[in-house]
Amino acid sequence: MSPDAALEQLAGVGRLLVALDFDGVLAPLVDDPSASRPLPASADAVRRLAAHDATTVVMLSGRGRDDLATVSGFVPPVGLVGSHGAEYDDGLAALLGRGGLLTPEQERRRTALLDGLRTLVDGTPGARLETKPAGGAVHVRGMDPAAGAALLERVHAEWAGDGVDAVAGKDVLDLAVVETTKGSAVEALRSALHADAVLFAGDDVTDETAFRVLGDGDVGIKVGDGATAARFRVADPQEMAGVLERLAALRCGS
Q1: Residues 54, 57, 58: CA angle, nearest 5 degrees
Q2: For the segment 45-78, what is each residue's pLDDT rounded down to a tens digit?
Q3: What's 14's DSSP letter?
Q4: Whole-prediction pTM
């Protein structure tokens, strides 16, 4: 099936879930994560789709949920899921029946984790620590590649395991005291929404867990290079904007 035929089929389903990674999908990758913003065409298409009565649009990112809200600029009805599925906005949390994020023991483990990560990052020029409600992420984008890789290897060796889940991405290592994946988040959302089909788009290795849970009637789109389980591929966020515009036109009318 061609990509356009897949979009036409997707546009005709009863209830549709559109789940999208943010960085590298709606927004071009930048060295300073706080400067990331969605392409205007993608943002417009997302808002059009989210306004459709039988369509739910969710940003599914490795960023913390509050950080995702700041850089994306999206508000309800666009849903926000952060930390690879560990954090849900209030509306989605209520839909899924989720309460507090961490147990007291997990809170203690998170404090120790962040203290350790801060020590490692402070001793490495160019590295950056992003704190999240369930843990933290060490970013090395913009550093010398060898030095960045060495730091991430050290972080993994010292902190992964013993109740800390580690997820490697592009120039980043995410560590959390709860185990979750984007794939499990997509499955939970699909079930709670009773979605007839799912579109998921992502650019990073962390997105592969979501691509692998998609079924025959779903559409997975890999943005950029790299091996993938997705059925379709686009070159960059600019091409992804065109896909979203096409889906919005088919689903919502031109």
Answers
A1: 145
A2: 999 999 999 999 999 998 989 999 999 999 999 9
A3: S
A4: 0.82
Distance CA 119, CA 140 (A): 15
The answer to whether residue 115 is catalytic is no
Amino acid at 155: V
Listing DSSP states for 205-249 in one string gives: GGGHHHHTT--TT-EEEEESSS--S-SEEESSHHHHHHHHHHHHH
What's the pLDDT tens digit per position in 86-134?
A: 889 999 989 988 766 678 898 999 999 999 999 999 999 999 999 988 8
User: CA 85, CA 188: separation in Å to the nearest integer?
Assistant: 10
Task: Give the pLDDT confidence of 7-48 residue by residue, as tens digits.
Answer: 999 999 999 999 999 999 999 999 888 899 999 999 999 999
Burial class of residue 247 (count of CB atoms within 10 Å of its CB; 0-12, 13-18, 19+): buried
Omega of the bond leading into 77 within 30 degrees of 0 (cis): yes
Return the closest-CA partner of residue 17 out of 211, 186, 220. 186
Q: Which of 21, 67, 171, 174 is catalytic?
A: 21
Non-local (6+) Cβ contacts of 222 within 8 A are 201, 202, 203, 207, 211, 228, 230, 232, 233, 234
